Amino acid sequence: MSRGAFIILEGIDRTGKSTQSAKLIESLRKLNINAERMAFPNRTSNTGQLISKYLSNKDYHINDQTIHLLFSANRWENLDFIRSKLFAGTSIIVDRYSYSGVAYSVAKGLDFMWCLQPEVGLPQPDLVFLLDINPEDSRLRSGFGSERYENLQMQKNVSTILRQFAEIENYWKIVDASKSIEDVHEILLKHSNEIINDIQIDKRPLT
Ligand code: DGP
Ligand code: NA
Ligand code: NA
Q1: Which of 109, 117, 138, 144 is the most exposed place for a label (fewest CB within 10 A)?
Q2: Structural domain boundaries, residue 18
Q3: DSSP letter at 117?
């Protein structure tokens, strides 16, 4: 049996990541592919509860370096879970990963290399989708503005940094997230299905 695929959805706030990852799981399961969804930050663990309080309460102070390391720790906490699922043959679809980790902190002014360091050694995804939308448009979507980072300047900075990742790395796919839910879904399903099949054929290791 070959391992599952490790697939990430990235994008600024309100690009449809949660909707798309849920739909993707549903479609993959209909194709008899084992798939599970995850999201970072995982707000249920100890670190996740601190992060959630920090995001939802703008008066709750944690300094920028400390919250950066907490977000990273929140990913490291799930290392064994991710590895065990993938090696059991289950593909994992994840809302956000190290790229959000770097992008949101660099957007606040922290040093890029400093931000990258705590992410080094986490498993590398097989495929990353950048759900790309004009920050001016994402702002108009429902729910925008309720949490700490949901302001236009921050979103513009994050968008620029995520696009830079997407342009450097060939395992990224930029997807126009202003398209309909169904159109975006079709693109995500096609590429996910392809990578899951490729891994079965070439038995590439998880790195
Ligand atoms: P979400 O639950 O996907 O809406 O994410 C919550 C917020 O936290 C969102 O504004 C993006 C931000 N975020 C997600 N991951 C990280 C991270 O690793 N570091 C930082 N600084 N922010 C993050
Ligand atoms: Na959000
Ligand atoms: Na989300």
Answers
A1: 109
A2: 6-202
A3: G
